[in-house]
Design brief:
The protein is 37% helix and 16% strand. It has nine helices and nine strands.
């Protein structure tokens, strides 16, 4: 199920950020042992295939997207965990949350027993947090290295771009980005301290290049209401209805 060409991208990421492939794999093995209530990829495909999917990130433009997202609660939303708090505060519950558990765990706690599907990502730096996944009613585990057990690799690096890879992997007809800015400004809902901001910007830059690469391979149609991304049609809130 790994997207063609991903292993090469992963090797580049590991070199650039100094990640240990062994640590990534060991974390995936651990997550596989933790998740008991699994949500099958087949069920996930039924949620996504052939549909318009909204992908919601925690970038600076998220706040200006809230009003529009409220009007489209019936659309399947896949959201990065940094965007969960403002969505819940505004009465919006995403159908799918992509998380490596480094965001607001209190917000995830509030909806852990709902029908929301949690796509939990294991990597070398979050092994100590993976136990939190035991509490989710519907959970799928993912990795960025080789698959193991019931842990899948759908592609993607940051929570935000992994949302897009997920939607594409399961055959979304159209994918529309909200709050996915990939710029130098970091959104207020992204839990990043001052010391980590340089690394965060570097990760965002890498995430953007991955989406540009995905756009050349995917059969989905890509749109963005955030900053321009090569391969994504830039649209406005006013003409959103014409494109979904």
């Amino acid at each position: 199920m790994v997207i063609s060409g991903w292993n090469s991208k992963y090797r580049q990421i590991a070199r650039e950020f100094g990640y240990s492939k062994k640590d990534d794999y060991d974390s995936a093995v651990l997550l596989d042992s933790i998740i008991k209530k699994r949500f099958s990829p087949t069920r996930l495909k039924k949620m996504i295939y052939g549909k318009t999917i909204f992908v919601v990130g925690a970038g600076p433009s998220l706040q200006s997207s809230i009003g529009t997202l409220k009007k489209h609660k019936d659309v399947i939303m896949i959201c990065a965990d940094g965007a969960v708090t403002p969505l819940i505060q505004n009465g919006i519950r995403p159908k799918i949350i992509v998380t490596d558990l480094d965001g607001d765990l209190e917000s995830l706690e509030k909806i852990k027993k709902t029908n929301t599907v949690f796509v939990v990502h294991a990597h070398g730096d979050n092994a100590d947090k993976l136990g939190f996944a035991r509490n989710f009613k519907n959970c799928i585990g993912t990795t960025q290295t080789r698959e193991t057990g019931n842990i899948h690799n759908f592609g993607g690096f940051t929570d935000g771009d992994r949302c897009v890879f997920l939607a594409s992997q399961f055959g979304a007809k159209k994918i529309v980005l909200f709050g996915m800015d990939f710029g130098t400004r970091i959104g207020k809902y992204s839990k990043t301290n001052t010391a980590d901001k340089k690394t965060k910007r570097k990760k965002l830059k890498r995430g953007k290049t991955l989406l540009e690469w995905l756009a050349t391979k995917s059969r989905s149609e890509f749109f963005t209401l955030s900053k321009p991304i090569s391969g994504f049609k830039k649209i406005t809130y006013r003409n959103l209805e014409l494109n979904i």
